[in-house]
Amino acid sequence: GSEDAEGGVAVPHWSSRFAFIMAAVGSAVGLGNIWKFPYMTGTGGGAAFVLFYLGCVLMVGVPVLVAELMLGRRAQRGPIGALVALGRRYGGTPAWGLVAGMGVVAAFLILSFYSVIAGWALAYIPKLAVGAFAGATAQATGAIFDGLLADPLAMAGWHTLFMALTVVIVAQGVTGGIERAVTLLTPALFVMLVILAIYASVTGDFARGMAFLFTPDFSKLTTEVAISAAGQAFFSLSIGLGTMLAYGAYVGDNVSLPKMTLTIAAADTTCALVAGVAIFPIVFASGLDPAGGPGLVFVTLPVAFGAMPFGSLFGAVFFVLLAVAALTSSVSLLEPIVASLQERVRLPRIVLALGVAFLSWVLGFLTIFSFNRWSDIHPLGGGRTFFDLIDYATTNIMLPLGGVLLAVFAGWVLTREARVEEFGMGEGVVYRVWLFLVRFLAPAAIVIVALDALF
Ligand code: PFF
């Protein structure tokens, strides 16, 4: 249970257990599932990436998610305050706050590009509504997407709109707005994804799509692919930067964290896989390159929308729902930053939300220009644009590092009593498996990856 001894300020609680699951699922399900997972799978070579990703979700992601929720509920504060207080109490040093500090920076960086990509989804709503893709071939959808990338002003406009929507919701406080949006709209998005997957399987190249997704060729599992699969697991589950920790602070004592975690991970993973099943049969049927990169979903799905009955309407609704799914995730990026700041800076919530979002919005221009004006600028070499670098630094380095440090805190630093109490299932085998994973496997994985990256 939550600990009054921590002296934490009272935080608002979710109105129900269901509302909490929905908010956490809303954070997890977003562009990461529908935009990023398919294109990373494509560039990662397919099934080997997918299998390694699933392994990471189960063996590292799920245990870390439990740890994060646990720390949040224990501390009853925003991420930085939480780790400072818990660190002082259990670890003898407030320096643990630095882990949350890194998470806040990561959230800020991710928000900057997340909003730009979500802007693409917004841009597609009117395009579909007016039938721009009716009867379009993959070449035509590709040209329309390239047209968007070549227009930084349009991208900036949609980025601005998306960031503004995020601020409006966060400024109102999370428990009201998010709950309502997620409860209805995430299931709706899921249903549409399933319909798309069925449609793509029937009309596209189902056999090749499935083989690509599920028949692994392990010679393709390079260190680079493994790292990106691990990073994707953290990104998709929203872990490693304090988002789930912030949400954990709002969870009542009666909620079982391990059970909630399984629900969140199952929903998140199912959405990603269904998105893959919807996209790859179209990729192969239309002769597209699976390794085509960040535009993959924006080029493939419109081919289906252009061919199916009522496709323009269906497609427009799909991108509305994708934008809403992105919104419930972007809100969960901004929220922990605002929650942390609120504890140290005496400014109204709205001012903090606006200020942080403004700075992140400005940073977003690095991503916008990465796809046009500055597409040839590779600041650190290696062919990586500003967008690639921000994405790489956050997804592949900061999130895994942060997540493992949180796991280490929960596994080694927290007292046994606190751990067992928060876990809420006694000290049976489930607890012991979890403890083993957070104590040994998660840290070992990160050490191996770090060593491999260095040498
Ligand atoms: N999990 C979100 C997605 O898959 O789109 C992205 C995200 C949200 C990552 C919140 C991290 C986070 F804290």
TrEMBL record:
Q: Which keywords has UniProt assigned to this entry?
A: Membrane, Transmembrane, Transmembrane helix, Transport
Q: Which SUPFAM superfamilies match?
A: SNF-like
Instruction: Give compartment(s).
Output: Membrane
| Main subcellular location of this protein, as a coarse class | membrane
Identify the InterPro entries for this entry.
Na/ntran_symport (IPR000175), SNS_sf (IPR037272), YocR/YhdH-like (IPR047218)
Q: Where are the transmembrane segments?
A: 17-35, 47-67, 95-122, 161-178, 184-204, 225-250, 262-284, 350-372, 392-414, 434-454
Q: Which PANTHER family match?
A: TRANSPORTER (PTHR42948)
Kindly provide the name given to this protein in its UniProt entry. Answer: Sodium-dependent transporter
Originating organism: Rhodocista pekingensis
